Structure formats: structure tokens, C-alpha cells
Amino acid sequence: MTESISTIEFVIDHVASLPSLKLDWYDEAGVLCALQSQAYAFTAQYLKQDGSLYASKSTGFTAADTAPNLTLAWTVGEFTNFPVGAYTLKIIATRASDNRVRVAILPFVIS
Fold first, then answer.
1. Residue 17 belongs to what H/E stretch?
2. Of 42, 66, 82, 94, which is most buried with the most CB atoms under 10 A?
3. What pLDDT is stored for residue 34 in this prediction?
4. What CATH number is attached to the domain comprising 23?
5. Most confident range, picked from 10-14, 17-21, 79-83, 96-100
6. Which DSSP symbol is given to 32?
7. Using CA atoms in the order 101, 82, 50, 35, what is the torsion angle rounded to 10 degrees?
């Protein structure tokens, strides 16, 4: 079994005020990851369709040990300069104690 995130492809209106994205992140055994107590640092990378990096951020994350265990908040206008189209959100979680990394990949669309 591989790690999983409970979400589906999502659509972002690039001029709207957005709610936070709330995720449930499970490990390969199907157990909810303890993202807060294990002290992870997070980075979000916004990738274009060809896989190249369009933008990234390391702010707006809130970790928890219960579901939803990861919340990603956006600022108003954060997507204003994104061209309309399909993207991939790559979330990289690095555990402070040993620098082990978890990665989640989520497709999304800017409309």
C-alpha cells in the first residue's frame, strides 16, 4: 500500500477568496499520519502540466494529529497571476527529527 491523501481533483477560481484545503494524509499502513506531534515542515510546489515549477510556498500550513491532519490556507489573490489551466500541487512534508520526507501529489485546475 502507498501513502494516500483523501481528496479529489479540485478547481480554483483565480480571482476568488478561497477556503482552506483540508486533507487527511495516511501512511502506507492506512494509519493517519501524526503530522503535528512529529514536527513536519511543509512546502507546496505548484507544477505546470510539463512538470516544471511555476511557484512554491512554505506558509499557510497547519498540521494536526487528527483528521483533517493537514490544512493549507491561501491568501486572497494568491492565484491571480496563474494562467488558467491544469496544474499539480505537490506537498512535501519533511520530518524535523530525521529529515525523512513524505510527498503528496494532487491535480487541480485554475479557472
1. none
2. 42
3. 94
4. 2.60.40.10
5. 96-100
6. B
7. 10
Could you list the residue range(s) of the whole structural domain that residue 31 is in?
4-110
Q: Is the confidence at residue 26, as pLDDT, over 80?
A: yes
Domain count, the chain: 1
The x, y and z cell numbers of residue 111, run together, are 479557472
For position 1, what pLDDT does the model report? 45
Q: Which amino acid is at 44?
A: A
**12 contacts 108 by C-beta, under 8 angstroms:** yes
Grid coordinates given for 89: 500541487
**69 touches 25 (CB < 8 A):** yes
What cell was used for 57? 510556498
Cell digits of residue 2: 502507498
- Tens-place pLDDT, residues 41-67: 999 999 999 999 999 999 999 999 999
pTM of the full predicted structure? Answer: 0.87
